[in-house]
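== Protein entry: sequence and backbone fold ==
=== Local backbone shapes as whole numbers ===
==== Amino acids and backbone structure tokens ====
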Amino acid sequence: MTAAIATEALGPENVIGVGMPGPYSSQGSIDDARELAKNLGIRFELLSISEIYEACCGILKDVFAGQQADATEENIQSRARGMVLMALSNKLGAIVLSTGNKSELGLVIARCTEIWRAGLP
């Protein structure tokens, strides 16, 4: 829904869909995100967060020693996505629009410059 609204409001040339699969992502979610982007005519980037996830888990390995994996590890995946999206936002001069769903694969970036050119606050 977020991608469709952004595409309608800003035009497909001003919207980028970003898929960020990690260890807890399903191939079905990735395929759905890619197909949605194709159907909307928007650019789609697939950026794996697995290396970021593994690096973070490696940093925490000694502190987490003896603990069972739980929602903490899944939340690391979510935080990695947030970091990547903010980097894209900063570099591209864009805003991040989020679906707010658990998979977070439907996140969309819309270019701020296009919004500013349109005269919107």
Summary: Confidence is low (pLDDT under 50) at residues 102-117. Strands lie at 15-19, 43-46, 94-97, 108-111.
